[in-house]
Amino acid sequence: MKIAVDAMGGDHAPEEVVKGAIVAAKELNVEILLVGDQVKIEHELAKHHAKNDPSISIVHASQVVAMGESPVSAIKTKKDSSINVGLNLVKEGKAEGFVSAGNTGAVMSSATLNWGRIKDIERPAIAVVWPSKKGHIVLLDVGANAECKPKHILQFAYLGSIFSEQVLHTKSPKVGLLSIGEEEEKGNTLVAETLPLLKASQLNFVGNVESKDIFGGEVDVFVCDGFVGNMLLKFAEGILDFMYGLIKGEIKKNWLAMLGALLLKPVFKSIQKKTDYDECGGALLLGVKGICVISHGRSKAKAIKNAIKVAKESVEANILGKFAEIG
Amino acid sequence: MKIAVDAMGGDHAPEEVVKGAIVAAKELNVEILLVGDQVKIEHELAKHHAKNDPSISIVHASQVVAMGESPVSAIKTKKDSSINVGLNLVKEGKAEGFVSAGNTGAVMSSATLNWGRIKDIERPAIAVVWPSKKGHIVLLDVGANAECKPKHILQFAYLGSIFSEQVLHTKSPKVGLLSIGEEEEKGNTLVAETLPLLKASQLNFVGNVESKDIFGGEVDVFVCDGFVGNMLLKFAEGILDFMYGLIKGEIKKNWLAMLGALLLKPVFKSIQKKTDYDECGGALLLGVKGICVISHGRSKAKAIKNAIKVAKESVEANILGKFAEIG
User: What is the ipTM of this complex?
Assistant: First the structure.
């Protein structure tokens, strides 16, 4: 299987991206097409003695979309960007998936434009997979659409449900609509108008659910607009960072606690592994005709490797085929 | 100082409310007026040998607003509810603040109707105070208004800023508008339309901020609509519960870790104290002409006691007077 990787995307590109791709090629049994500035990529590969790695090749792209650049201008003026060239590889059948830690808006818009949307899906959505008390849950949209109509949320629910079933192997995934109370009369207009659509759908819809239940494991797919989803995504990052900081700060205050922390190291490691962004690697852009994994702009090698893993598993699960069947 | 407490509000009323009130009367040097069913309250007081406590008195109210009851129906049909009687005590000058763990919607609507709104504030908001890396931050609205107009968010910003300055003693509080990116072009329509209002205000407005920065301590007041705020509030609860569960589960797996956990007990205790809902006790309803603290429906004695503490401190800080000065 071939995965195209945007070597120029992200705050630590190309160093960390190339490093992550090398590990992925070794560990995941995939071929990697590194897309971007040939000279720079070769330089990075050389650092790791991987210039002649048969499972890694370079596809040159002369342009780079900057992290803060407007997606519209990127699409118009940068046809030869690493994002666009990478997407083309998938379109032309030269790769089966694309991974980028670059400008999220540009990746999203370019993928939608370049690959097109799945039948009946008007707005692609970004989905994250999180651990829960009972397994894994899917949350979407986490940022593709800051403003949504009820029908879009319904479409997200279908995308998330199929993803949960096919990739996470959830049997008849339970879908919940994120609101500020389980009662139907609570919530905002979007929730009130989306509720009847979800009720009338063929999904296993369980009703309105609260954000405190995301990790409970009773619901498998949580849908919301991209403003709320992105807010939750970034809040999770902030609160975990704050908690780890608090724990570290308190531990340093006395030596008995430091000893305790030493004994607890494997516990903390295991939990960090479970909750670490780098471990889940990336979010999937669902609703486009191709496998596209969007990784955090701050991704380092480990996150890139895991994003490639998500792409690989999505290809193997043939989610595109499943979307097409049901769409 | 006299604080009226809704003895019938919350999942654990009247037992836990009365228990919390007894502790508050003892520790906080306040007089408590317990509002609700006289017989039931007397029974609870008797359990704790506090029937003759001179700092606790009972004000009978014959009705109770149920947790799931519609605020509109409560206001119409339950003039003698513990909520309404408690609010009246403040209105009539017989108490200086009101605390309730009852039906949030009913408390909010009744307080607004009964006390009236502060000049220039069209919508009261619920504010929470959270710890941050550098002190404490204020987040509002966390649930009073699921749908807001830009001018309401601006009003929340004024309320939050004054609260932060007067009660938390923040000098020239920095106000941030919660969005999904610091860039002005990111966010939804509400953010886009609120931004110019905040920029033109006399507040120390620092621009759009992300939810990951809530605990950073660089911003003192975060404003958003009540749908987003409530979503974050409940998500914080869910994620902390999940994390504690993960830690406990991992620790049980080996005895060295259990020993480590024992040594770390003071650390965990200190952190739990910092992040525990019961420790902060309650959220303030800002924008009404009175001090009203809304405590979680699940509040137990400790949370009630701390909610009474928040009410006491708000009275002492004379925030109503400050609102009036500036309003």
Answer: 0.90
